[in-house]
Amino acid sequence: MFNKGTKLYSIFGSKCPKCHGESMYKNPNPFNIARVYDMPERCSKCGTKYKIEPSFFYGAMYVSYGLGVAIAVAAFITSRFIIGTSMITAFLSIIGSIVLLMPVNMRLARNIWINIFISYDPEAAKGRENDQ
Fold it and tell me: What is the domain count for the chain?
């Protein structure tokens, strides 16, 4: 399921969507807020351009919204119904989880968005392996 060559491998591993050979971000730590969006212009392994066009990642905002709603629902259900906290505490857990997971949400949204438009190419991955 999370093997190389799958979209999930690229999304959750922050790998190049075409060759899966390089991280899409200069800094692998999403909690370094100052550098959360720092990406090279192209993949050094296969040459895929990450920013396909100007403002390409604006579409990731819609994905980020959906992820944020999923996080909020999960936090509410966990807090209110599984742990059994009060309604106020459940809503505070929503705020806390959204704020805490914001950098992860931002990167996952970008990863999902670019994987919608670029698919894994085994030939690009083979070319990369042959170069080494």
Answer: 1
